[in-house]
Amino acid sequence: MTTAAFEPVDINTMQLAIDEARAALEHDDVPVGAVVLRGGQIIAARHNERELTGDPTAHAELLALRDAAREVGHWRLNDCSLFVTLEPCTMCAGACVNARLGRLVYATPDPKAGACMSNFGIHDGHVLNHRVPTTMGPCADEAAELLRAFFRARR
Predict the structure, then answer these.
(1) At CA 60, angle to CA 3 and CA 63, rounded to 5?
(2) DSSP one-letter code for 89
(3) Which of 28, 78, 82, 99 has its CA 20 to 30 A from that of 66?
(4) Closest to 48 (Cα-Cα) out of 60, 35, 57
(5) Is pLDDT of 101 > 50?
(6) Is the pLDDT of residue 16 over 60?
């Protein structure tokens, strides 16, 4: 897990993920967005759609990984990077491992459900057969404030 200085591509791609997160607000979903980058090109961009579709697995990360796999033509995404605005949950972190994802970048931690650093170390590979290099922090304040505002409005 790293929180080092960020490359411009990391910040720019995370900004696109934040734009996706804002789109989730249009249908009252938790504002989480995800973008998959391959060879410098965006091959998938999605946001949470659980409320929209009634599907409990319609997390931004899973939707983006599914789209990316279709684009690539197979399930192995070892040459792809996933940018997501919130630390993935156990389901999504497991999907990253199972997709053999090349890299994960997330903006802000999830102290309640995060499975990469906050509560579990699914990506470190100490039990599973694949390690997902993970970076935290680009655009963290903006992503966290989007989530705080969403939940403040619901209370």
Answers:
(1) 125
(2) -
(3) 28
(4) 60
(5) yes
(6) yes
Among residues 49, 61, 71, 87, which one is catalytic? 61
Tokens of 43: 């091959």
pLDDT at 1: 45
CA dihedral 35, 36, 38, 44 (to 10 degrees): -90
Question: At 47, phi and psi to the nearest 5?
Answer: -135, 165
DSSP of 47-106, one letter per residue?
A: E--HHHH--TT--HHHHHHHHHHHHHTSS--TTEEEEEEE---HHHHHHHHHTT-SEEEE
Examine the residue annotation and report whether 61 is marked as an active-site residue of this protein: yes
As given in the structure block, the two tokens for residue 128 are 């599973």
Amino acid at 14: M
Residue 74: CB atoms within 10 A of its CB come to 8
110 residue type, one letter: D
Distance, in Å, from the CA atom of 53 to the CA atom of 17, rounded to the nearest integer, reads 20
Task: In whole angstroms, give the CA distance from residue 21 to residue 34.
Answer: 8
